[in-house]
Amino acid sequence: MKPRLLITPLPYHQNPLTLFACLRQRPGAVLLDSGRPDAPGGRYDILSSDPCAVLTIDQRGQVHCDADIALPTAPFAAQQALLDTLDVELPDSELPFLGGLIGYWGYDLGRQIEDSLAQSRDVVTLPRSRLGLYDWAVIQDHEQRQTWLVATAERGEQVQAWLEHTPASTDPFALTSPFSAEMDRAGYGQRFRDVQRYLQAGDCYQINLAQRFSAGYEGDPWQAYCLLRQATPTPFGGYMAWQDKAVMSLSPERFIEVRDDRVETRPIKGTRPRGATFESDDAFAQDLIQSPKDRAENVMIVDLLRNDLGRVCQPGSVQVPKLCQLESYANVHHLVSVVTGVLGQGQTPLDMLAAAFPGGSITGAPKVRAMQIIEELEPSHRSVYCGSLGYVDIRGHMDTSIAIRTVLADGGRLHVWGGGGLVADSNEEAEYQETLDKIDRLMVALANDESTDKVRQHSYAPQEQ
Description:
Layout: E1 6-10, H1 17-21, E2 30-33, E3 44-48, E4 53-57, E5 63-65, H2 75-84, E6 100-105, H3 110-113, E7 129-134, E8 137-141, E9 146-151, H4 153-163, E10 174-175, E11 180-181, H5 185-200, E12 206-218, H6 221-231, E13 236-242, E14 245-251, E15 254-259, E16 262-265, E17 268-273, H7 278-289, H8 292-310, E18 319-328, E19 332-342, H9 349-356, E20 364-365, H10 367-377, E21 388-393, E22 398-401, E23 406-410, E24 413-422, H11 428-447, H12 452-459
Antiparallel strand pairs: 1-9, 2-3, 2-13, 3-8, 4-5, 4-7, 6-7, 6-21, 8-9, 10-12, 11-12, 12-20, 12-24, 13-14, 14-23, 15-16, 15-22, 16-19, 17-19, 18-19, 21-22, 23-24
Helix pairs in contact: 6-11, 11-12
C-alpha cells in the first residue's frame, strides 16, 4: 500500500529564513524563497531537506545518483526517471509542491544540447546540475498567510522535531579579498566590438555578453545569503549548500512555470538603475518604457521563446498576453513580457524545460549561434549562472527561475556575473554600466559596506590568471 501524504498546518512565518535556519545544516537542505511576495510569481516558499536521492550531472556531462537506481544517461531523461520513482498517495491540494525534484540546472547543460560549445574553461567546480528527490516539504503561502507541512505521518514527525531544534551557531561571514573582474574595462570593450562584428555580419540579432567577478571569503555562506536577501529581495530566490559549495540566487525572472498543463515564461529584457530620488527614479523608469532599443530587444526574445514553447505546446496555444511591461526591483527597473501556452499531449514539464533550455533571455537570438559566440568570447564557463533553479512536482507542476543575480560559493571563493543583451545599436559604455548596475548591490551587501564606490574601485581590476 502506498504511503499517504498528509497536509498539516504550521504557524505562519512571513520570513522563511526563521524556519530554514532550523533545517539548513541537514543533508540536502534547500530553500526556494519568494522574498518579494508582492511581485508576480512571489507567492510561495518551499523548504525541504534529507532527499531520498540526489542526482548530479558532472562537468563531463555524466549522470550520477547516490541511490541504487538504474537511470538513463541523458540528463533530462534521468531526471524524469528519478522523479517517477516517487510513489505516494496524493491528497487533493492546490499547493504547488507535493514532493518531487528541487535543485538547479546550470547553463552549462547547454553544451550537451549543442556539442560545439567547448572552447572556454571551467573556473567554478559546481556540477552542471544538482537535484534532490524530496518526499516532504514545508510550503508557505504568502497570499493566504498560511504554512503547511506536506509529508507522510512518519516523515512528518521527524520534520516537526527538526523544526523545534535551536538553530546552530554559524561562523561569521566576511570577504577576505575585494571583488575583482575576470576581464578589465578594455577586455570588455574588445569583446563588445567582437559582438558588434558578429551582429553586423548577420550571425545573430542579439547576443548576451556577461562578465564574472570573484572574491575570497571565510565563514558561513548562509550568512552571505541573508545579507543578499536583505539587500535585494526578489520573487525567485533560492539557497542550497553542500560541502564547500553553495548557490545563492536572488533572481527576479521566472523561466518556465507549468501548472495543469498551462505553461508560462516571463522574459526580462531592458534595464535601468533605480534613482536616488523619486524624480530621478521615475525618469529612469520612463526612459526605459519609451526606449525603442530596449523594446526591440525584449520583442526579439519573446519571439524566440514563442518558438521554444511551440516545440512542445499544443499548436496554436502559444500567446503573448503581456508585452514589455515595467517591473521595479530594489536595484533596477526591468521590462518584462509574458508568453503562455498549453503543454502538448504526452509532453512533460521536463520536456518543456529541455526544449527551451537555456533561456533565450540570457543567450540571444538565434539561440545556438549566440551560445557559440558566448562560448568564444567569455573567458570561462557560466556554471549555474544563467541556468535555472526550481522544482518539478510529481503531479506535473513545475516552476523555475533564470539564475541571474546569483552568487556561487566554491572552495573559499565567491563568483557573481553581470550581463546584458547586445544589439546592433547598443552603446558600449551604457552596456558595460548595465552589467555593473545589476550586481553592484550584491557585491556591496557581501562587502557589508554601504559605499558602492568602495566596492567599484576594486571591482575593475582584472584577476590574475
